[in-house]
Queue: 3 jobs
Job 1
Amino acid sequence: MSWAARHHGYLALDLVCSDGRTAIARQRSRPPLQTFGLQGADCHGSAYLQIVNPCGGLFEGDSTAVEVSLQGGAHLYLTTQAATKVYPAEHGQVTRQHIRLRVASGAILEYFPLPLIPFVRALYAQEIEIQVKSGGVCLVAEVLAPGRIARGERFAYQMVRSRVEGWMDDRLALFEQLRLQPQQDSYAGVGMLDGQSYVATLYVLTSQDLDPWIRGWNRRLAEQHGECVGITTLAYGGLVVRLRGQTGQEVLRRLDVVHRLIRQEGLGLPPLRVYRPFE
Amino acid sequence: MILTDQAFLRLLQITDTAFPTGAFAHSFGLETYVARGAVDTPATLEAFIANTLLHAVAPSDGLACIAAAQAGPDWEGIVQRLDHRLTAMKTVTEFRQASQSLGTRFLRTSTRLFALPCATRYLAAIDAKNLHGHMSLAYGLICHDLALPLPPALSAWFRHYCACMVSVGVRLIPLGQTAGQMLLARLGTTIVTAVERTLGQDIDDMTSFAPGQELAGIIHRDVLTTRLYIS
């Protein structure tokens, strides 16, 4: 069975650079996953695209896959129309999401989905595979909410499992896996969330040397946000940014601040002109 | 596998906090917590040590150690894969460098004391810069070479982590030596839990989640102005 056929919802996007603009060369999708029209993200040919799921969330046992491939020169800011809501698993079936991102030399992919909100009793497993060729850049953000706060659901889900593998050419540059089971363990304490509720990570895979920036960035971020944001360098280049916050808006704003720093100062990219719900 | 008297003595020696690996020079983010006043009592120190052991050390390094200790004829391929995975997994620069530095020193000293065929080959691969050399894999291979049974070997190693962290806390907070020993005694239950959880897992289940500790490690390198520890 092919990779696409194993999943209920499927979205595959191939993007190229055509006449200085990023364009979709090929798109395949199977409901419920759709996209909302490609738009310009700046005046330098980069594009903005939303992934849309009209179901309003992922249900128990759902399995979706997103596969995005960028050819040289293409530059895409990819996001989701809304937060990814994971509904309760009443029969013990896991909701799964599998994301594959491939970035060629000279291409830039920024994947910034809105937060993941696991509802009470949700069971969720996600895998992200990133492959970046030397000279390419891939930024991937993950924001995990503790649940539906307004309904009093805070760490009421059964399980969230996330695995991220990032490859720079043939080298494993990033491996991250977590499995949170808040019914069995508390994550609130010292060394963990320290009383914060939201946790986010930004992965930056690039062969560009960003290390000279890190110490200065961390000092500026510590002045503004205390011990809630920190940037570290991976062994083979690239960065990981850790973020925490008390609210979704707070952690998204912090993510936006650090994203701008890395894009504009580190990577030398022009500012994005896209809609972001926390601005 | 039975823990013979000879093996027991060797286990005591290699997990003695006086064994020269350099572990006492690392706080793994604890110094940041103490500097910020977030760890300032035996209770908060215990919480930091227990949380980081259960959610970061045991489910990542613990599993890597078990895989190395149990590896059969194909052990070199397994260790090579895990060595790369641990390098990619230890995202905080100071923690990654600590693991490599401690692992290499541990191998260098141990291979001078005992006949350790697998550990010697791992050290040769590190010296040839083919592998990075992580503490958990070094310890696992030495357990393999010394025929140390896993449950006590893992308990001893986790206890070593706790003892080093207690020592950091005793010096930085500061706490009295007796308070430190009382804390270490209380951590026994956590160590047993960590060993039980780790022994039941598959190597593909390697996880780590201690965002506060990671942020503290980042801040330790880049923001703290006074530091007594390397990490």
Job 2
Amino acid sequence: MSAQPIPQQVDNSSAAANEDLVVGSQARINFYGVPITLGSGGSLVPDKNQFKDDVITFFDKKLMRDIAIALDLNHPLLIEGGADLGKTQAVDRVCAYTNREVYFVNCRDIEAEMLIGRLTAVENSKSGFGWKDGIVMQAIRNGGVLVLDEYNRLKGEARAVFHQVYDAVLRGKGQVVLAENNGEVVPLHPNFRIVMTQNPPDGTYTNREVIDPAEISRVVHLRYPAQLPAEVEEARILGSFGIVSQAQDAQAQDSLPYQPKLDKTVLAKIPGMAEVLIKFVEFHRHLRHAIANRELAADSAQPVHLTFQRDVKRLFTFVSSYYNGDLNETLQLAIEYYFVNRFESEIDRQKVREAGRMVQGAATAHGKRRAVVEEQATEGLSHIKRVLGKNYYGPEVCETFFGEKLGKVPGIPGWITPELLKSRCPLAKTGETIGETHSLIFVPAQIGSRNLTVHTFAQMANGRAKEAWGNEVLSNTDFFDQEEFKIKAKEGTWVLVYNGEAADVNEGLYKAVSIRELLLSKGIMMISSRGEYESIPQHEVTHAAGAKTPRGFVEAKIESDGLGCSFMDLDEPGSRMVARVKA
Amino acid sequence: MELFGEIEEEQTTALDVFIEGVSKQHEAALCIAQSTRSMLALSYTLRREGFILCSDWRAAMQELDNGSRVALVAESISREVYDLFSQYNGRSGMVQIFDKESFTFISKQLPVDVSSFVLICTDSAIIDAYAPILLHAGLIFRGESV
């Protein structure tokens, strides 16, 4: 059976490039190609164990990716599709892996006061009477993901509750006013999100209402088919019996880039921007016209409604968050997400895609204009290098040592920021910073033409060490199972390793103190992964052993329970540090 | 008379298979009775087989949380009963229900691997509920108990 659906480490071509432009300071992970900020955890985060037997196909990956984009960009999201597609499970799964709490409510027969709250008998009040929050207010105050299941079964008064909430999210007001509780002003928690799911109101399902244009224009409406595609059904049954099919193995889409959110002044400098924006206006007009003339969505029970102003805001949010240096490519991704996905029939979707191709700029089509992003990446890397000093072991160090080129080098993960490195390390008794007590090491996937495994690394390191010092480097390759750790990754990975004192991993004398607590206290989770291997959220570097001031290379690979790293100290041939990112 | 006896035997066997199946599956099962009277008969049969009978969703949720085998007898399918049933299956035991009486949001990860859950109701209750109960059901038994 293939690896389970666990998000991958962020691929950040310009992560932490310019911390002033980085959105927030919380950690981000790459969730099926979407660089998403992690939530703050809590008792309502779904248990990941419940997904351990799930079969994840390209369809599920796309669904989760679409949800992750909406959560990342803070769009209220409405997912429409037939029963049994896995909509609710997908939301739960995204929340589980991004450490977000879920406030789930089925909208059947729900009343407004259950959503908002009411004045009722309470224990901690002199009068014995006071305000109690409903589900929506609890999610707003605590920063959870409010999941409204069977949304189009919501009735009048209860439905009206959400208009104020949508507006607070969309207009960036950041607060709602509780008229029912003497006009209490409740600020929106920054992690608060809304996801709605529903079956199509086409008569197949009873009591489903058609949502009015004013309401549907406030949300990002993504339509999925009424039935699962045949290849997905096949993949699910085959996968359930341990047989991996093409549909299960396939990737949904390429990664969106992680980058600092770009502001207007940066976006305005992107060559060809004005040209493609004018073309976007034409595209939008064309779609509105086609919908009005029933050339699009003619058979759709839930009418498609486009509002220019809201779509412009969405487009700006998408481009400023995910611009990858190629404006055409970024805009096509945005059009697919916001416009193609609003239509259910494949014919309509193709028509919208076709129309979307008009949003292309001649200038941007001829070359990748990555200057803005690359400039920031270089600045950010230099900054991190300066903070780390001798504790930085980037790809250039590795290349110098082996005298060979490495494979593809991704950017430094977004959660490794200069602020993190400058903050005090709780493991250090003398007040050192994390940048002083840890090493940032690049673990290559390939050295020259060879894939990096424990075995190849040991061979190469031994050869190099013999050449340099006449000594062999100790490498306990029997500690690892060769077959199990075949490296398939195309890219290397960055690992932040504690430079702590030795403990013998084989004797189980693991270092008791974990940096996980430190990272979690900062809202950051230590996540490591590489390439096609799935990564491990909430895993930790629990053990560090070996060198005093490491100056060497780390080797890492995925095991069933985590990422194992071994580190060779070049100053002390024969020494070995073992760090283990454990499940 | 002989024919009647055969039918009785067949129904008992089907119920036995159903009960055995419920214990092996991790999904909430549905037991649809023809009438309120046969609903009670089915309840007693399930109790005999080791199920804890509950008529209240809160009690059922508590027992499920303890890992018990639970039969919830529902004359009508309330919003909370539907929530419990559909989330037990659809969300793999992650059940979140807003209790209107106590005005509290209850969230539990029920141990679907060890507990068993059967909802006993009538056909008319399913029709009146206007909810896709059957879509969420794992095993379904329809018939009489002897």
Job 3
Amino acid sequence: MRAMLISFMLWGAVVGAPSATRTAWLADYHGYDFTWPLPEDFTSPGQFYAAVGPVISMNEDFFILDDDQFEYTIHIHSGTLTYADTVGTYVFFYYEDGDGTISFYEDSRDEGTLADYGTYPPNETSPSTFVDGTHMLGGAFTSLRIVFEMEDGDGSFSGTINFTEGTYLENIPPDMRDGWTFSGLGVGHPPFVPEGYMNQVDGEVYLEEGTPTKRCTWGNIKQRYED
Amino acid sequence: MHMSKTRFIFAAAMVLGLSTPALGQQVLLDWGPNCFGWETDYAGHISEPGSVLTILGRIDAFYDPLDFLDPETNEYTFVFDSLLSLGTVEIGGIIFETEYDGGWFRIYEDTTPDFEFGIDPPNATAPASFTDGELIMEGPLANVHVVLVDDGTPPGATGTLTGDWVITGGSLSYLMEDCYGPLLAAWTDDPAVVPIPQGYTCHADGKFDLEDCPGTPVESETWGAVKQLFR
């Protein structure tokens, strides 16, 4: 047994012990989505998908929100469509160019401008009033998938993220800046969602927590098991 | 049921002094990471016909006209139960659609926060720690529908839960009786996406939107007139 254990530890020292990953919830949000510059158009050249809304809550291990003083918002931008596909009555949109973004903002209720959806975004207030104030945390989508059922209009999106910027980036440990978001999308039309928006959005963000590995020499390992 | 005089007067003032929520949709309540459900016959994205789904969770935020409820002070939990699966339809090997018949929701206010999912529900704390306290709102669910997509792209299998709700009972139902609206949630059954406690089969993060309140009468009153009612 001891010989097997030592062999295992040797393998670990040479190649790096396997990391045990854990998942940490980061944030909960909701809002509405839209495409732009044209509404309800995913595929024409130059078209993008976006979602904006309030941040409902965040993990207090990383951020302590002061809802009395500040408004917290989220902005999701798809980047360039890579390709689309259909399966039955479902349509899939994949964004894999790495130019999509997700960002969180903190804006003073007294000195800032309250978020205002307006109509037919982008408009005078959207997304501008959702992306003002302090850029708390931001990152790029390494992949994003949006799915819709073409008959009833409901759908979902999910994407993987690498957080790389923001005033409070340091609140997230360096080994926890990869993550993902996923959201339900509920079909909406006036008066169910602001005019010009497509769907209600409700989703959350998670971070992947990796257990760091530590390299050591064969001599260090032997020392641990010598009597 | 005990309700402080102050809250009762305030609530009554809301009923008398506020107009009914404007026609349309607005967020009524929202919940986030603290929500898991289990089914009696579910595996590998497939819900078998006759499987019963139960969902438990904690509400994180309330909005007008329930924004006087403070989740920082009290614990607000909910239960969705009696959701009878009609079976999962698989499409293209990557889309999994499940319709649920029936269903009921209940929302509780607990002054002693104690919710605990535990493992392998039902257990000693689930659903018991989600159904203690005061039943403030309840009613039927309808058209509950889950779509899950698992095409192998990260982070894993995700999708949507949708449905409809209407308020028919509970101690605060007089504020919103017969009010109704849609339910929307992000959905996953994949522990690679969200760690799901042992014995639970899904996680949902969602909200109730308020669409309309057709039966709530409106009468404008002054604050003085409202106070006179309770003297």
